[in-house]
Amino acid sequence: MAKNLLVIFIIILNLSCGKLSRNEPTVKKPNIILFLADDQGWGDLSSSGNNNLSTPNIDALKTNGATFNNFYVQPVCSPTRAEILTGRYFTLTGVYETSSGGERINMNETTIAEILKKADYHTAAFGKWHNGMQPPYHPNSKGFDEYYGFASGHWGNYFSPMLEHNGALVKGNGFLVDDLTDKGLEFIENNNAEPFFLYLPYNTPHSPMQVPDEFWNKMKNKSLNFLSDANDDEDLQFTKAALAMVENIDYNVGRITDKIEKLNLEDNTIIIYLSDNGPNAYRWNGNMKGKKGSVDEGGVRTPFYIQWTKHIPKGLELNEIAGGIDILPTLCGLLSIPYSTEFPVDGEDLSALLLGNKFESKDRFLFNHWNGKTSVRSQKYRLDNENRLYDITVDRAQKNDISNENPNLANKFLEAKRKWENETITTTKQNDDRAFTLGYPKAIYTQLPARDGEAHGTIERSNRWPNDSFFTNWNSVNDSITWKVDVLEEGNFQVEMYYTCPPKDLGSIVELSFGDSKIKAKIIEAFDSPLVGKEHDRVLRMESYVKEFKPLNLGIITLPKGKGTLTLKALEMPNKAVADFRLLQFKKLD
Questions:
Q1: Is residue 113 in some structural domain?
Q2: CB-based contacts of 303: which residues, under 8 Å, 6+ apart?
Q3: pLDDT at 27
Q4: Does residue 15 lie within any of the structural domains?
Q5: Residues 87, 92, 96, 102: what is their CA dihedral angle, to the nearest 10 degrees?
Q6: 373 and 353 both lie in a single domain
Q7: I want to staple 210 with a disulfide (CB 3.0 to 4.6 A). Which of 71, 73, 158, 483 is the partner?
Q8: Exposed, middle or buried by CB within 10 Å (0-12, 13-18, 19+), for 433?
Q9: If you average pLDDT over residues 325-351, what whole number do you get?
Q10: SS3 (DSSP) at 314
Q11: Residues in contact with 181: Cβ distance below 8 Å, sequence separation at least 6, in sequence order
Q12: Rounded to an integer, what distance in angstroms lies between the CA atom of residue 132 and that of residue 151?
C-alpha cells in the first residue's frame, strides 16, 4: 500500500512539474524581415534630418528599435548583397562586377537563408536579387523557398514588367515595389504560425526614375530645403524623383509593419532596414563626401535600423562601427542559432550590443572596395583611396587630411589596406573561369538572357549597360549569339526563345546548338512590340528601354554534361532581319 502511494505521489509530482505533459507550448523563434533599399542615401530619410521628404514608417523602426550610427556597406549593389547574405567580404565570394556573371556568389558560399532554413524557418525573397541568375546561383538554390522578382541588376520598367516566380517567367502586377510588398504580405499571412525569414530587396530609388503619380505629384513642385553641398550641380528633378520613390518605399514598409501588428507578431519579429550603397546622384547626404560608387563616407554609409520590441531597447543609438558583413552573425546571435559555413565569416556578432549585454568593443577595421579603389574605416578614422587620413568623428566631409601629422597611424592603416587587398581580392574578370550553369539537378528552370550572351557579327546590344538589355540588329546568317555554359547534369530541355519580329521580317529559321545537339524553329508569328518605359520616366534614363517579348518554342534539346559553347544563329533569313532577342528559357524535362 505504501509503495502504491509512493508511485501515485511521484506521478502527481511529475505532472505538476510538466514533465509528462506532451502539450507544453514551445517558444516560437522570432521572425525576421529584412528591407533593403536600392541606391538610397543615408540622407534620404526624414529620420536622418532631411525635411525634403517624410518617411514616418521607416522612422518608426528607429524610434522603436536601435540605430547603428556608423553602419557601412559597399559602394554598389551586388557586393553589398553578397556581404549581407554571407557575412563575408564580397571580394572573397566571387563577386567583382554588377553584371555579365561577375555578380555571382560562388556555389559553395553559405547564405543566411540556408542557415535559417536548417533552423526550420520558412524563407522568401521578393525583389532584386543581383547575386546570380542561373541555378545554383539563383535564390531558390541559395536557401529561399520562394522567390519573386528579377535576378538581374537594374530593370527597365517598374510597371507590370516581366518577372519570375521560382524560375518561371511571369508578368508583374502594377508598380513593382507595391507588387513585391503584396507578395511579402501574402507570405506573412501564410506563414505566421511558424518562424519565417522575409527578405525584401526593393529596386528603388535605383533608376529608371519611375514612381506612381500619387507620390510624384506630392514631390514634383515642392521646394527643397536641403541640397547637396558637393561642387556639382544637383539635378533637382532627379532628386525629387528619388525622394518620391523613397516615400513609396516608406508606404510599403508601413504596409508590412501594419500587417505584423495586426497579426500580433510585433514582439516576435525582428525588422531591419538599410540601403545597399550611397545615393545614386548628388543630393543632400549629411555633408558626407562621395555618392554611389565611391569608397568615401557618402558612398558607403547607410541608415541601419533594427526593431525587436521588448528585446532591443527603444531609441537605442550605437556609435560602434558595423557593416553588412555583421548582419549574418548578429542575427544568429539574436536567435541563439549556431552556424557553420564552409568559410569563416568576416563579420562580428553584435547582438550583445543590441540586447544591452556585456560587449567588448574592438577598434577593428572595416574595408570598402570597388573598381580598384579601397578605403579603410576604424572607429575613429578613415584612410581613403589616395591614402589620406581623416578623423571621421569631427570630419565626415573628409576635408582635413591628418596623415602628415600622424605618419605612424597612417602607415598602420596603409599596411592593413595592402594586407586586405592581397588576401581578399580573389576573383577578377581576368581569372574568372566560371561558365553560366545549365542543368542544375534541383532546378526546373534556367534563364540565359542577352545580358550574359556575347554577340557576333552585326548584332548590337540595346544599351551599353547589359543587365536589362536585349540584342538587336540581327541582320545576317553569319551573325550569332553565344554563351559559355557548364551543363551540370545531362538532360532534356524544352527551350523557348523570347523575341520580337515585325511582319515584314517573318520567315527566319533559327538554330540553337551545343556540340552535336541542335534544335531549330521558324519564326512565323509577328510580334512587333514598341519600346516602353519612357512614358513612366520622371527623368531621362541612361539604361535601355525595354519591350514586351514573345516566346517561340524551339523544341527539346538534349544537353550532355560538361562545358562548351551554346550558339544561337539563323540558318535562313529571307528578309532584312531575323528578330530582336531577349532571352532563352530552359525547362528541364527529366
A1: yes
A2: 42, 45, 47, 48, 58, 62, 67, 71, 273, 274, 275
A3: 73
A4: no
A5: -90
A6: no
A7: 158
A8: exposed
A9: 96
A10: coil
A11: 126, 200, 252, 255, 256
A12: 7
Alpha-carbon radius of gyration of the chain: 26
Q: What is the CATH number of the domain that holds 188?
A: 3.40.720.10
Torsion sign over Cα 180, 304, 382, 40: positive
Per residue in 169-224, pLDDT tens?
Answer: 999 999 999 999 999 999 999 999 999 999 999 999 999 999 999 999 999 999 99
Domain end call among 334, 358, 382 = 358
Q: Is there a single domain that holds both residue 264 and residue 395?
A: no
Q: Provide the pLDDT confidence category of residue 20 given band limits of 50, 70 and 90.
A: very low
**CB distance 539 to 209 below 8 Å:** yes
Answer for the pair 238, 206: CB distance below 8 angstroms, yes or no.
no
Distance of CA 370 to the CA centre of its chain: 17
For residue 523, the domain's CATH number is: 2.60.120.260
Q: Are residues 374 and 450 in the same domain?
A: no
| Helix or strand run (H / E) with residue 522 | strand 517-522
Whole-number Å distance between alpha carbons of 322 and 332: 16
- The total of other beta-carbon atoms located within 10 Å of residue 562's CB is 14
What number is the average pLDDT over the span 18-33? Answer: 64
Nearest of 71, 187, 74, 62 to residue 127 by alpha carbon: 187
Residues 40 and 164 in one domain: yes
Q: Find the domain containing 397 and state its range.
A: 369-424
Within this chain, do residues 187 and 167 fall inside the same structural domain, yes or no? yes
Residue reference for cell 568623428: 393
How is residue 156 written as a grid cell?
527597365
Cell digits for 199? 527578405
Instruction: Tell me, yes or no, whether 350 and 379 share the same domain.
Output: no
The answer to whether residue 6 is domain-embedded is: no
Cell of 553: 518554342
25 in a domain, yes or no? no
The grid cell for 550 is 514573345
The one-letter amino acid code at 579 reads A
pTM score over 0.85: yes
Phi-psi domain of 20 (left: phi exceeds 0; alpha: psi -120 through 50; beta: other): alpha
Query: Quick one: three-class SS letters along 381-425?
Result: EEECCCCCEEECCCCCCCCCCCCCCCHHHHHHHHHHHHHHHHHHC
| 321 and 458 belong to one structural domain | no
At position 243, the amino acid (one-letter code) is L
Single residue among 323, 358, 393 that ends a domain in this structure: 358
Residue 413: partners with Cβ closer than 8 Å, 6 or more residues away:
365, 376, 378, 381, 383, 389
**Closest Cα to residue 274, out of 113, 80, 78?**
80
Number of domains in the chain: 3
Q: For residues 324 and 379, state if they share a domain.
A: no
Residue with cell 568576416: 346
